[in-house]
């Protein structure tokens, strides 16, 4: 089917009661282009139960669009594709109910032709809502791409081309292509199916032609077997891609991208890709794009994947729902492995109005949608059936788990299955006894955040072993959240069990990675989280003990906005935890410097286990001259020396035996801070921080000087406040105002301030630690001009060229 973007010319408003509107209560529609996050347009509210969604309120919304359908399309099959609508989407065409989808993360199709008026304008209306149904910032509205599909009565089914590579060696690869052809006519039809396999250069490396006879209303699956000589194999280090182009002569055509790669799994070698063992250096990631909210643009997804890979990750676990098509495409191109997750809940709700209310009726269709979306993506190596499902330790939970597992296997037996089990939750309803260890009313997350509560001890108990035995037995890989205590013992108890740390505390990566490397049956570690996110506010914030708050709390009060626990912040800037992880992974030879904020010196830290130390990579602390200050140095070397303005503070042992870190206490004095690492007494690397001094300048830098007017492309403009030498001035924050003109528009503007009150759709934002980020969307080929101003700074201008799309 011909597939065209349907993103333009929508209108949006909060949903209005039609009877109230008849009585004169009118709410005007506003023009929007989707993807669009309706929740991000709302003002935040300091509500008691708003921490999960960053204090953005829920609501009901409606979108409408008028579009012309030519007379010549009469007799065609016309469908609408929605990649994601949050949540409880209901679609009307010309006032007629056309379909719905309760789950906010599933792609779905609407058969539209039966409701259309040909040769006239038609109207589509989409209603959706969100209300106490998520544990994180979900966003709302039509937040992913929409498409219009037009085809003949005989056509290739959407998602009807599935490619597998069942047999691979160095000389040739077998590529099997299954194409589903549909026939909605009243006659038996025989069509000619032409299939070509092309390499990255576009050269045809295999082809075949075959007749296919299709009965009315009975789809036909045509299977073809190809042999690709000297195949280029897809892997994280070399993500080679091929294209499969399928056509029904003079009728229809489809094209999919795939990779040739093999997957193997066993306790002795772990996960093997193309015969090579791969350990997953994993990042858990929520779906929001920071200043863009939940709006999913292809460039935003690609940028996030690239930055995560540059930071040392080779795998992403999408938490806790199916990944967007745009991110999957980026993972394919860039060589990022994927654990795609189906649900955050099954039959037991985690919020009053969440998907558990719809799960029993809709789970099969949502599993089908996830697998159909993922099938041809070589980056996807594991499907996860769920996250911290409370039923996992019960008999009925095991029944549900087996249903889901076998459903996935029936649809796709080429990947492996896991389930991210929190062994603490597997003890329900015994958790009432565990709560007694904490304060009255303490929730599970708060218990886990408290360093006085031993999560691992519970996870390693014999009761957990018994309760989870059936749940783990039906999986290819036992996914375990915060349960590394089981890695060694389970290899003895269950010799065939393969384990993946599906969610772990960032502060334990050194111990966890040692276990991953030590045990062949443990295939990787996924930190919570790789990228900071909106909602679950403050779980990774620094906390200090006071008489009123002697224990850490899970979330923070309004105006907290961010979780505060990512290796990268919401603008994509790498934080100290990221560089520490890179050192632990063995990917960074130089040491790294992180400085604790001097204003908290001497206080008792009581942060949660999701929190890194309260540090930034800065030696600019005006007002704290001569005050005591602690410098952290991360390194895999034998020892490190710290020098302040050329004066040595001595050498300390570091490396794996010392958890790859050490601390030096000194008095703050402006100038230069230098760390020198040594191996066997010989310098192996150095890192320096300089104090920002002198006048402050506003610097603006686009991520790319040239973009395209293609669907989903964006330009990211990074703002930094710098001194004359280019050192970022982390203590000179000020408001930055932007004016955008030409062939583009500002769609997001923000910083990594964890408690910012500024709106992301404003034209003025305060920097945070000297940084801010603006996101521009092209509207047509040409040029986008951005003028930025800040107090006591010379204005700066950025020019981004927008080229025509290649196609």
TrEMBL record:
<protein>
    <submittedName>
        <fullName>Glycoside hydrolase family 2 protein</fullName>
    </submittedName>
</protein>
<dbReference type="InterPro" id="IPR051913">
    <property type="entry name" value="GH2_Domain-Containing"/>
</dbReference>
<dbReference type="Pfam" id="PF16355">
    <property type="entry name" value="DUF4982"/>
</dbReference>
<keyword id="KW-0326">Glycosidase</keyword>
<feature type="domain" description="DUF4982">
    <location>
        <begin position="629"/>
        <end position="683"/>
    </location>
</feature>
<keyword id="KW-0378">Hydrolase</keyword>
<dbReference type="GO" id="GO:0004553">
    <property type="term" value="F:hydrolase activity, hydrolyzing O-glycosyl compounds"/>
</dbReference>
<dbReference type="InterPro" id="IPR013783">
    <property type="entry name" value="Ig-like_fold"/>
</dbReference>
<dbReference type="InterPro" id="IPR017853">
    <property type="entry name" value="GH"/>
</dbReference>
<feature type="domain" description="Glycoside hydrolase family 2 catalytic">
    <location>
        <begin position="271"/>
        <end position="421"/>
    </location>
</feature>
<comment type="similarity">
    <text>Belongs to the glycosyl hydrolase 2 family.</text>
</comment>
<dbReference type="InterPro" id="IPR040605">
    <property type="entry name" value="Glyco_hydro2_dom5"/>
</dbReference>
<dbReference type="InterPro" id="IPR006101">
    <property type="entry name" value="Glyco_hydro_2"/>
</dbReference>
<dbReference type="InterPro" id="IPR006102">
    <property type="entry name" value="Ig-like_GH2"/>
</dbReference>
<dbReference type="InterPro" id="IPR036156">
    <property type="entry name" value="Beta-gal/glucu_dom_sf"/>
</dbReference>
<feature type="domain" description="Glycoside hydrolase family 2">
    <location>
        <begin position="698"/>
        <end position="796"/>
    </location>
</feature>
<dbReference type="InterPro" id="IPR006103">
    <property type="entry name" value="Glyco_hydro_2_cat"/>
</dbReference>
<dbReference type="Pfam" id="PF02836">
    <property type="entry name" value="Glyco_hydro_2_C"/>
</dbReference>
<feature type="domain" description="Glycoside hydrolase family 2 immunoglobulin-like beta-sandwich">
    <location>
        <begin position="161"/>
        <end position="261"/>
    </location>
</feature>
<dbReference type="Pfam" id="PF00703">
    <property type="entry name" value="Glyco_hydro_2"/>
</dbReference>
<dbReference type="InterPro" id="IPR008979">
    <property type="entry name" value="Galactose-bd-like_sf"/>
</dbReference>
<dbReference type="Pfam" id="PF18565">
    <property type="entry name" value="Glyco_hydro2_C5"/>
</dbReference>
<dbReference type="InterPro" id="IPR032311">
    <property type="entry name" value="DUF4982"/>
</dbReference>
<dbReference type="GO" id="GO:0005975">
    <property type="term" value="P:carbohydrate metabolic process"/>
</dbReference>
